[in-house]
Amino acid sequence: MRISTVTMFEQGLSSLVRQQSEYLKVGQQIASGKRVVNPSDDPQAASRAISVSQSQAVNQQYDDARVSTRNALSQEESVLNSIADAIASAKTRLVQAGNGTLSDADRSSLASEIKGIYESLLGQANATDGSGRYLFGGYQDSSPPFVKDNTSGAVAYQGDEGLILQQVDASRQMPSSDNGKQIFQSVHGSAGYLAQADAGNAGTVTFTGPYVSDSTAAGFGSGFTLDFAVATDGSVTYSSDGGTTQVPYADGQSIEINGLSLTLEGTPADGDSIVVEKAQNADPDLFRTLENMIAALDTPVETDADLARLQNTLSTSSRELDNALDSVLTVRASVGARLNELDVLDAVGDNRALNYKQTLSDLIDLDYNEAISEYSLRQVGLQAAQKAFVDISSLSLFDLL
Questions:
Q1: Among 15, 81, 176, 391, which residue's beta carbon has the most beta carbons within 10 A?
Q2: Do 266 and 238 touch, CB atoms closer than 8 A?
Q3: From the CB of residue 216, how many other CB atoms can be counted at a distance below 10 Å?
Q4: Which residues of the chain fall below pLDDT 70?
Q5: How far apart are CA 212 and CA 162, in angstroms?
Q6: In what residue span(s) does the Flagellin N-terminal domain sit (predicted)?
């Protein structure tokens, strides 16, 4: 078979181009450090690498979400710590106010101190994060959640009960904050019972308690209301929950109803009443508790009835402050638990990221030892092809003429 000169040149050129292409391909791999430079180099590995890269990106998003959540929770924990300290300080002032030797001026001085605590708590309740978002407003985080009425001076919650959730892992949504109602206007589920004297009471009766005396009693946990009546002969009776049965009352008497015990001292006036109920049902509000304390301490004590109202207010406020502190500490414990969980999720995420990185490396990264050997081999092949082309191209009859 006769091989034409054109055929020899075409085959030589084809061999040169192929060898040069393989040589440059290995050179690109060495330069990029990747075995798979183009999807055509290894379609299956390239496809799997895309899937692993997407998983890597999602894992990084979870990591970023955990950073954001940790910052928010750390700031909330700091604020809750300040709130707990403020409540403890208010309780200290309340105990001081119970000293019977204090004058009106002394109590007014304590009221001024509690006012400072009150304003501090209001500022903490309206704390913001670094981006101007209010921590305790729930979903309504663009405006202050606690607003003081200019007329009455009372503080009202303007936020909602929503919890902002962050997707911190594939199967975990974590609250990045807690709403103000949960912190300032609620009590822990284990909170006990609360006694409150009616603001219009004119007698001198004061109470101690209530305490649980018999948890197996019929009607236990329902609470009750005591209504006092004074007969024309001066005798005092009371009925519970609007009942018609009048029970004689005596100073220092311990009354047991629905498994709850309440000790009463002093003489009630006709129409006086005392309500005993679960703390959860008493519309808890830390700010209103402080407002009641301030008002009571600022009111001069001129009569025994004034003193009784002061003592009853302080007694109720003491339990309300204890319940408020328990509520804040419960939320703070929840924040701490979430921060610990984030640490665990970080460790899991880091391990997952390392596995993704290793898998991606196995799929597309270059083995330099193998690549350098291949590079040298391709270089020799290219040089051989070039030498063969030169030798073949010189085979011409014209050289023999």
A1: 176
A2: no
A3: 6
A4: 1-17, 19-42, 45-46, 361-401
A5: 34
A6: 3-140
**Alpha-carbon distance 396 to 389, whole Å?**
13
Cα atoms in the 13 Å half-sphere on the side-chain side of 207: 28
Residue pair 330/188 in contact by the 8 Å Cβ criterion: yes
pLDDT at 40: 61
Domain boundary among 280, 310, 344: 280
Structure token pair of residue 388? 């063969």
Residue in 253, 264, 273 with CA at minimum distance from that of residue 202? 273
> Is residue 261 domain-shared with residue 292, that is, in the same domain?
no
Q: Which amino acid is at 140?
A: Q
Exposed, middle or buried, 231 (CB in 10 Å: 0-12/13-18/19+)?
A: exposed
Let me know whether 221 and 347 are in one domain: no
Taking Cα atoms as reference points, which of 259, 218, 258, 262 lies closest to residue 241? 258
> Which structural domain, as residue segments, surrounds residue 106?
34-187+284-365
Cα 12 to the center of its chain, rounded Å: 73
Angstrom distance (rounded) from CA 302 to CA 299? 9
CA–CA distance, 45 with 365 (Å, rounded to integer): 11
User: What are the structure tokens assigned to 165, written together?
Assistant: 């959730």
pLDDT one-digit tens code per residue, 116-132: 999 999 999 999 887 78
Gap between the Cα atoms of 8 and 274, Å rounded? 116
pLDDT of 123: 93
The model carries a pTM of 0.80
Question: In terms of domains, do 63 and 183 share one?
Answer: yes
Closest of 143, 176, 174, 178 to residue 161, by C-alpha: 178
Place of tokens 């403020």: 86
CA angle 43, 44, 50 (to 5 degrees): 90
